[in-house]
Amino acid sequence: MPKVRGLRTIKKEILKLISTYVDKADDLEMVHERLVPDLLQAVLLDYQNNVPDAREAEVLNVMTTIIKKLQVRWTPNRSRHSVGLIAIPLFTHHANIFQGLMTKDVPGILGAVFECTLDMINKDFSEYPEHRVEFFKLLREINLRCFPALLQLDQRQFKFVIDSCMWASKHDNRLVEGEGLNMCYELVQNMSETDAEISGPFFQNFYTTILQDVFFVLTDSDHKAGFKYQSMLLAQMFYLVGSGKLNSPIYTSDMAPAGTSNREFLQNFVGNLLVNAFPNLTPAQIQKFITDLFSQADDINRFKLTLRDFLIQLKEFAGDNAELFIEDREKAAQEAKVQERERAMKVGGLLKPSEIDDDEL
């Protein structure tokens, strides 16, 4: 109905206005004390109780903006306490104390938007495109800035978060794919920086799941465009094992005998994975590939080169592989642009006044 459509347009514009106001606000304490409580109560309840077609993606954007503005990035601290899924590090404040108070609101935000949004977008890869992008942006900001709150989720909800990242990595929308892989990379990084009693259960339950899904999208020719983020995540996972940073097992008791080192388990696990998926490869090729992944995990450029060479050997990647080199082309174009600007700066009049920064005058 025209009246309903008009009211929905007004609601969407109000949400955009709030997002812009919070993003530009200087008095963050006032925003947190006077705006956030009533806003969360009204907006989240409306979003959760609405039918899917009436839920606004702007709600997710507003939540992302609030968390990004009011919460400093989480860093691990030695002080710990146990709550929820596993032990949680107390986050360190690097700014005014009110910039860390959104952590207590995150469980309520996730409770209102997480499952109902996931239920909207997990049926296929096309419906509700705006919700998809905003949903993973929100999850990523929560992981970056409210990591302890993320761990307050129960095991079922936390598994949903991991499943969401892996589901996003298989998405045909590049923005969604990138956000999902980035969040997974940052989540693994956060976990690796905590003590063994915190990281142990996570890596034991989810390391192999994440690894299998990353190899799945890496070797799927439909996901060549995600190569940059796939390689970053894979390099991180091999580095954590190869460098001995993970002291607890990354496998469960039914996957390998007790006492098996993480490195030995990972070698065997990846070897079996590739043998079963690509029978055209010889054992020698696979063994050399795995050895190179371990030895080059701390050098992302060499690691990417090894991955590219391996992928090009596969029948699935026969043909045009230009998308595997997107990052290199973008970097070369950026460097050429910088060099051209430096040349123009040496000759007066080649740059417009609007193209010159104040510190270059």
From TrEMBL:
Q: Does the keyword ATP-binding apply?
A: no
Q: Does the keyword Protein transport apply?
A: yes
- Domain named Exportin-1 C-terminal: residues: 1-319
User: In Gene Ontology terms, what is one molecular function of this protein?
Assistant: nuclear export signal receptor activity
Q: Which GO terms describe its biological process?
A: protein export from nucleus; ribosomal large subunit export from nucleus; ribosomal small subunit export from nucleus
Which Gene Ontology terms of cellular component type are present? cytoplasm; nucleus
Which key words tag this protein in UniProt? Answer: Nucleus, Protein transport, Transport
Q: According to its UniProt record, where is this protein located? A: Nucleus
**Where is it chiefly localized?**
nucleus
SUPFAM superfamilies found in the cross-reference section:
ARM repeat (SSF48371)
Would you identify the family this protein belongs to, as annotated? Answer: Belongs to the exportin family.
Q: What is this protein called?
A: Exportin-1 C-terminal domain-containing protein
